[in-house]
Amino acid sequence: MKLVWSPETASKAYIDTVKSCEIFQESGVAELVSAMAAGWNAKFIVETWSHGGPIATSIGLAVASRHAGARHVCIVPDEGSRSEYVAALSDAGVSAEVIVAGDAAEEAMEGLAGVDFLVVDCRKKDFARMLRVAELSQRGAVLVCKNATSKNASCFRWRSVVDGSRRLVRSVFLPVGNGLDIAHVGAIGGGAVESSGPAKGEGRRWIKHVDQRSGEEHVIRK
Questions:
Q1: Which pLDDT belongs to residue 218?
Q2: Starting from the edge strand earliest in sequence, which strands make up the sheet with 117-121, in order?
Q3: Of 85, 157, 211, 219, which is most buried by a Cβ count within 10 Å?
Q4: Average of pLDDT values for 166-184?
Q5: Pairing of strands 206-210, 217-221
Q6: How far apart are CA 141 and CA 58, in angstroms?
Q7: Phi, psi angles (nearest 5°) of residue 106
Q8: Which residues contact 83 (CB under 8 A, 6 or more apart)?
Q9: Sorting pLDDT into bands at 50, 70 and 90, what band is 165?
Q10: Residues 75-125: pLDDT tens digits?
Q11: What is the C-alpha to C-alpha distance for residues 61 and 63, in angstroms, rounded to an integer?
C-alpha cells in the first residue's frame, strides 16, 4: 500500500483547523500542514514540541489525525512542556499522545515505528538527527520542517537524512510562515507517493491560499 492523496479529506481538515486556530495570531502553517496530513491519509503522525513554542500546528495535526483516523504522538523534552502542550490542545477540543523524552529524544523517535507524517522544528539543533533516526512507514512518508528559514537549516539537505534504501520522490520549499521544507519519501521497493487524482500532466490545477492575517497570497500547483 502507498500514500494516496484525498482532496476531500484535506479540505475538511483545512476548514476545521481554520476554525480551531482562529484565536492564534499565526500564519497559515497550521492549516496547510493539517490538510497535508489528512489529505495523504496519514496513519501515524509524529511531531516534536517544547515549552513556549507555537501550538497552532500541533492543533492542526490533531485535527488531521481525527479526519484520517491516525495515531498522533508528540515528543517533548520535559514535564513542563507536556503539561503546557496537553492544556493547549484540550482548550482547542483535541488531544494527542505525549512522550516525555528528556535527553533521549532520538531514542524516543527510534522507538516509534511506521511513521508516515513527521513534523520537526528547524529552530531546534537536533531537528536533522530526529529526521535521520525516524522509523518511516513502508508505504512511504511525508516529512515537514517548519521554521525552515532559521539559521540551523541553512546547510540542511534532504539527502543527508533520507536512508539510502529509500527514494526521495520530491521536495519543495513553501514560503509560508517562517518557511516549510517538505519532502515525500517513497514506499519500500521504490514506489512513489501517489495521488488519487488525474495522471501526471492531466488536469493539473493551481490552489490559492491567502493568509488572512498578513494578506500574503500563496499559489501552489497540485
A1: 52
A2: 97-100, 71-76, 44-48, 117-121, 141-146, 180-185, 168-174
A3: 85
A4: 93
A5: antiparallel
A6: 18
A7: -65, -40
A8: none
A9: confident
A10: 999 999 999 999 999 999 999 999 999 989 999 999 999 999 999 999 999
A11: 5
Nearest-angstrom CA–CA distance, 114 and 71: 11
Cβ(108)–Cβ(133) under 8 Å? no
Write the single-letter amino acid at 200: K
> What nine digits make up the cell of 63?
485535527
Contacts of 55 (CB under 8 A, 6+ apart): 24, 49, 85, 88, 89
In this predicted structure, what is the pLDDT of residue 2? 79
Query: Of the candidates 161, 154, 148, 159, which has an alpha carbon nearest to the alpha carbon of residue 121?
Result: 148
Domains of the chain by start residue, with CATH: 7-188+201-221 (3.40.50.150)
Confidence of residue 191 (pLDDT cuts 50, 70, 90): very low
Q: Which of 100, 106, 34, 104 minimizes the C-alpha distance to 70?
A: 34
